[in-house]
Amino acid sequence: MQKFIVLIILLIVAISSQSFYQNTPLAASIKNGQSVYATYCMSCHMEDGNGVEGAFPSLVKTNHLNDKNKLVKIILQGMRGQTVVNGITYNGEMAGLNLTDQEVADVINFIRNSWGNKATAMKITEVAPAKKSVVKGYQAF
Ligand code: HEC
Predict the structure, then answer these.
(1) N or C, which end of the chain has less CB nearby within 10 Å?
(2) d(CA 50, CA 30)
C-alpha cells in the first residue's frame, strides 16, 4: 500500500512538472530573446530599453509594441521616417536585420515582456505569415 502511494505521488510530480515546462514556452523564448536583443538591438535601444533620446526610440511602455506583425516588419525590414515615441519625435533610420523566425519570435517576446512591458506570446509559427507583408519602403508608424 505504501509503495502504491509513493508511486502515485511520483506520478503526480512527473505529470505536473512536465505540464509546468509545457506551460512556459514564453519564459524560454524570453530568455533566448534576451541574448538576441543583446547581440542585435542593445547597441541602439540600450540595455534598459530606453534608447537614446532623439536618436534611438525607447521600447519601454510605448503602445507601438502592441502589433506583433508590425514588429516583425520593423525587425526584418527596418524602419525610416518619422515616429513619435512617448512624446519625442524621431526621424531616423533603422536597418533591417537578418534573423531567423525563431530569433524574431524570441526577441519580440523579450521586448514585449521586459522593463515593465507585458504582452502575450508570439509563436514562431506566427512569424512566417507576418513576413508575407514585409515590403520595401515601408514606414511602420
Ligand atoms: C543601429 C541602431 C539600431 C539597431 C541595431 C536596432 N534599432 Fe530599432 N530603431 C532604430 C532607430 C533609429 C529607429 C527609429 C527609426 C525612425 O525614426 O523611423 C528604430 C525603431 C525601432 C522600433 C519602432 C519604435 C517606434 O515606436 O516607432 C522598434 C520596435 C525597434 N526599433 C526594435 C528593434 C529591435 C527589436 C532591434 C533588434 C532586433 C533593433 N530595433 C535594432 C535603431 C536601431
Answers:
(1) N
(2) 18
| Largest distance between two CA atoms of the chain | 73
Q: What is the pLDDT of residues 125-136, one digit of tens each?
A: 999 999 887 765
Is 71 a pocket residue for ligand 1 (Cβ < 6 Å)? yes
Q: Please state, in angstroms and rounded to a whole number, the distance separating the CA atoms of residues 79 and 91.
A: 10
- 37 Cβ partners below 8 Å, 6+ apart? 45, 107, 110, 111
Q: Which of 9-18, 22-31, 84-93, 102-111 has the lowest mean pLDDT?
A: 9-18
Residue with cell 523579450: 110
Gap from CA of 96 to ligand 1 centroid (Å): 9
Q: 41, 107 in Cβ contact below 8 A?
A: yes
Query: Which grid coordinates belong to 60?
Result: 519601454
Dump pLDDT digits (tens) for 95-119: 999 999 999 999 999 999 999 999 9
